[in-house]
Amino acid sequence: MNIDPPNPGMPSLPPEERYRLYVDESGDHVFNKLEEPSHRYLCLLGCWFRMGDYLPFHWDLEKFKQEQLRHSPDEPIVLHREDIINRRGAFWRLREPDAAARFDAGLVKILSNAEFRVVAVVIDKLRLREKYPSPAHPYHLALGFLLQRYCGYLNHINRQGDVMAETRGKKEDFLLRDCYSWVYNRGSWGKMTSDAFQQALTSHELKLKPKTANIAGLQLADLLGHPVKQSVLAENGVQVPTPTAFATTIVSVANLKFNRHLYNGRVEGYGSVLFPK
Questions:
Q1: Residue scoring higher pLDDT (175 or 57)
Q2: Are 122 and 232 in contact (CB under 8 A)?
Q3: Is residue 4 part of a domain?
Q4: Could you tell me which of 2, 23, 18, 36 has the C-alpha nearest to residue 163?
């Protein structure tokens, strides 16, 4: 696992004490079809791990996939929410109810045992356009809010980390990199200075990996993104479709992992953000 050299302003730390934020999105960033809920809301969901906690999660997930869906190690199976739901590709085995039940129970156990924190930032693009004559780009907003919470946590515990997302395509990758660089170099709308971001982050560049790289943290973010987004919307009074039983279980696990206020345990504003309200 490649981790950048430490910031010279921070104490030298062993690799297992470094952190990584894994980011995935649910929804899109364009201002089209905003009357449709599936297009109105963009969610960036991030899961961060201390690297000493990440390695056991990675190996547990690989063992789980091999036990549930026998496959060649040279052709690893990548967990992708839509493929699992639609029983596509290697997940055709889950069409059998008993196999699906074993898979769901095993996955929930792994997620429950893993040590990580979750932040979900949901941007209401319709409200954003209505409230601001020249709205900021939804990605700029969402990634800025997400990095504020990640870097705030790292600075509080005197640690550092980096950020990884999944490649989406040339245009989308450029946009994500640009948004990350903007926050790193300029700060975030008066809430956190660039110095605070640079103190916490070991790299001035966002790391991007393809789905085929089989990154456990990116698979986790993919699994949580949609159900957690729907849960955040429901908690804020937005009508959403009734979740499946498994989605409800996944959200119950995520609820235990949300980033929280250090003293009062509050999740809103720390582990979940809806903007604007």
A1: 57
A2: yes
A3: no
A4: 23
> Which CATH number goes with the domain that contains 219?
3.30.420
pLDDT at site 4: 55
Query: Of 262, 224, 256, 200, which Cα lies nearest the Cα of 20?
Result: 200
Task: Determine which helix (DSSP H) or strand (DSSP E) holds 274, and give its type and residue range.
Answer: strand 272-275
Domain residue limits at 68: 15-275
Q: Are 240 and 233 in contact (CB under 8 A)?
A: yes
The DSSP letter of residue 258 is B
Question: Confidence class of residue 21 from pLDDT cuts 50, 70 and 90?
Answer: very high
- Report the predicted TM-score, pTM, of the whole model to 2 decimal places: 0.92
* Polymer length in residues for the chain: 277
Q: What is the pLDDT of residue 189?
A: 66
Question: Helix, strand, coil: what percent of the chain each, to 5?
Answer: 50, 15, 35
Instruction: State yes or no: pLDDT of 234 exceeds 70.
Output: yes
Contacting residues for 84 by C-beta, under 8 A, at least 6 apart: 91, 94, 223
Residue type, 246: F
- How many domains in the chain? 1
Phi then psi for residue 218, to 5 deg, are -70, -35
Do the beta carbons of residue 190 and residue 32 sit within 8 Å? no
